[in-house]
Amino acid sequence: MSKKSLAAFGALTISLALAACSGGGSNEGTASPEAGNTLLEQARETGKIRVGTEGDYLPYAYHDDNNQLTGIEVEIMELLADDLGLEVDWTPAPWDSLIAGVDADKYDVVIDSLAVTDERKEKFDFSDPYTRAIGKAAVKADSPLQSLSDLDSSVKSAQTPTSNWGKIAADDFGMELVVSEGLVPSLQLVASGRADTTINDIVAFRLYQEQNPDVSLRLLEGEIESPGCCSILVRKGEQEFIDELNAAIEKRIADGSIGEITKKYVGEDLSARQNAK
After folding, report:
1. What is the CATH number of domain 134-225?
2. What does UniProt give as the signal peptide span (predicted)?
3. Has this prediction a pTM greater than 0.85?
4. Which tens digits make up the pLDDT trace of 40-49?
């Protein structure tokens, strides 16, 4: 694998992350909601919904050349908010503190390709799925691994342990995890031979390959669908807001709007199946 290509892609990712974490959010001067009101009441009173996202995850939520937040989930969230008569007040945050930002009252909801898990449901509520995530496993071109059926406890996978894909690698395939923080570091571990593979979103891999055509990277045969993905995380006990949000999600899946947004970025309809609740 070309170190130069990895470095270039890594530099891009780092620059986007710095932009995301340097106060690029639109929440300056926005007061926190008053205690005692429901989230829906607060949102309608202010005309805004406070939303957290990573802000450096191509093509879902990232900063463009003009440092404007854009991407699949940015467009979806703004579409749904508009259906609720609201504007979105964005706050980019790093993954390791993103969900905790809801507890810290930095924002009210999180959209970040999140899967619904039992552990997360203990503290938060979730909308119905709005898109689905398809995973693939990447290896070096000369790897003896050929398909997902080759992945087992003898294989080392570079993953962020708390991510959806990290849990799938460990729990579903029984692989030993080599701890990493994000796609590019994971691919670097695979390239160096410290890991055999890494599982991530097929869209992320496609973009990486497009931007790094000389990189010696191959995707194994077979697809992995992340269960419970992808839903919007909402602070606990806000069923009235979730009901309104779910109605908007159902409407925009049915009329094809969410599918058109994903096609715009990746050429494929990744909207959630309407019975996937």
Report:
1. 3.40.190.10
2. 1-19
3. no
4. 999 999 999 9
